[in-house]
Specification:
Layout lengths: L1 H8 L5 H5 L3 H5 L3 H16 L4 H26 L5 H35 L1
Length: 117
């Protein structure tokens, strides 16, 4: 089944991988990559002087995962059907988008509270 899916979906953008660069690789068996992105995510807290560098690495990584995530998912997991694959991708996209939205709202509150004090 994955061979058919590769032919149809190869190179397609993967929103789940884009929105969850630390969690998505771990869940798909790319352990070192997931750990790397989790460390990059906490990097600005440990080394605030390099915040822009960490942001640049994260953005670049997100784009690469977005571009290659579908191929990576098909390489590491066997899907029973096209519907199974599409449902899985939809769940990752929705969880990633929801997580990103919640984090953006929390960051907005932090900025608002900081600017008041």
């Amino acid at each position: 089944m994955n061979e058919e899916l590769r032919r149809k979906y190869a190179g397609k953008w993967n929103w789940g991988a884009f929105f969850l660069p630390g969690v998505w690789p771990l869940a798909h068996g790319y352990i070192p990559l997931g750990i790397f992105f989790l460390l990059v995510a906490v990097g600005p807290l440990v080394l605030p002087a390099f915040r822009l560098e960490f942001i640049a690495i994260t953005l670049l990584g997100r784009v690469i995962l977005g571009l290659k995530g579908t191929d990576m998912a098909l390489a590491r997991r066997e899907f029973e059907s096209e519907n199974d694959f599409v449902n899985s991708q939809d769940i990752w996209r929705n969880v990633g988008l929801g997580t990103t939205a919640v984090l953006a709202i929390l960051a907005s509150f932090k900025v608002a509270i900081t600017s008041l004090g």
